[in-house]
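Final report, closing paragraph on structural work. Over the funding period we assembled a curated collection of sequence-structure pairs, and we close with a single example.
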Amino acid sequence: MKISNILSKRNRVLLRELVVTDFKLRYQGSVLGYLWSLLKPLFLFAILYTVFGLVLRLGTDVEHFPVYLLLGIVLWSFFNEATKQGLSSIVDRGDLIRKINFPKYIIVISGTLSALINLLINLVVIAFLMYLNGVQLTGNVIWFPLLLIELYVISLALAFLLSAFYVKFRDFDYIWEVVMQAAFYAVPIIYPLSLVVAQSDQLAKILMLNPIAQIIQDSRYVLVTTDSIRLYDLLSNAFVIAIPFIVTIFLLVIAAMYFKKKSKYFAEDV
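Its predicted structure, as stored:
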């Protein structure tokens, strides 16, 4: 069911205004403005590709490695931005919550949709880089929108959880920052998964049970190169292969229930 069918007209207008406001305020006062939504991942890509691609020579065995690397960075950047936006979204909108009675989940959704706009802009850059690198699209590309939906769902689920936690425990801002720094290296973004497989096949399987790792590797497979190792390539057990999807749905259900329970007290606590 579409969000527009769930929300009333009043709430749809509020959601739209919050998304537009979030996107405008993010770059207000900066000289380059919206260009930063493109430049941030490109700067990170340039640094990581120089260090790990050109100096350390990682990814030399991966076809179209620059595109392979940038796609991983862009997808991770969305996940990072959506969860960080979600974490502080309720507290940041405390004045609005105390003045107006409306479904509080709209605030969290608006933050993730704002991050989604950035993701879509960056995917245009990736499409251009794919063209320059001569990447040939195959029929597998039809699976990419489903992977984006999976990525959005798990980001939204964590945004709901983190926003509710942060209302009571402000330490979660620092905790989540540390978690994300560690997770960046635990997910095969800057290094090919083949390097992990060469060292420990078991470790590679464990890493790929992470939904974010699964989404990034599957996205690389369907868009860039079949050299991208998927969980499906490492395991044959259908239930284990489905674990990232099960985790995503389970997390969304738990997050929605917890957020709904705690949202009654947001006006008092923020």
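Residues 1-5 have pLDDT under 50 and may be disordered. Residues 10-269 form one domain. We thank the funder for supporting this effort.
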